[in-house]
Amino acid sequence: MNKKVNIPTVTGADASVVNEALSTAVRQYRSQRKMSLDELSRQAGVSKGMLVEIEACRANPSIALLCRLASAMGVSVADIVNVASSPSVYVISADDIPCLWHGEHGGSARLLAGTSGPDMVELWEWKMHPNEIFETGGHSYGTSELLHVVKGSLQLTVGEESFIIGEGCSAVARTDVPHSYACADEGALVFTMTVSEQGR
């Protein structure tokens, strides 16, 4: 029914901002801990070659890779892309909300806001079109996602089980196993998602 569309994270102006932020975060993390690329590679489950590309600001990592690196560094993805909350109110302008995934038919995933990690909560807005799918591995143990379909129908697959969530409906899913989101019908899909992940 659907093709796998888990393409690199971002393109265009968003890409350079996210890539530079990730490059800085990884370099600072390794420098502060006097950590080798090999050690971070083992901790994060990311190849040494990819880490070299990230630090040189030449990579365009996927959301899954961002999540693995954030978890290994004890921060949230929101910390890395600068949409994490502070102790008081932190307002994020529309222009500063990063798009971290683009589907091949115009879909997008925007990280609207998040708390600082490693125990973090993130708020996402997803837009998908027919034949778009996002597949990812499991998040850290105990991670939960709350999803609400604003428009269309969402096909949510968690592990071996698949569910259709209709317009106006919500779902709670434990996503510490491989999972995917896909547009379930012929119209556009819009859903919001809150991710709650506990640090390791």
TrEMBL record:
GO terms for molecular function: DNA binding; DNA-binding transcription factor activity. Residues 26-80 form the HTH cro/C1-type domain. It comes from the Bacteria. Keywords: DNA-binding, Transcription, Transcription regulation. This is XRE family transcriptional regulator. GO terms for cellular component: cytosol. SUPFAM superfamilies: lambda repressor-like DNA-binding domains, RmlC-like cupins. PANTHER family: HTH-TYPE TRANSCRIPTIONAL REGULATOR (PTHR46797), HTH-TYPE TRANSCRIPTIONAL REGULATOR SUTR (PTHR46797:SF23). CDD domains: cupin_XRE_C, HTH_XRE. It comes from Pantoea wallisii.
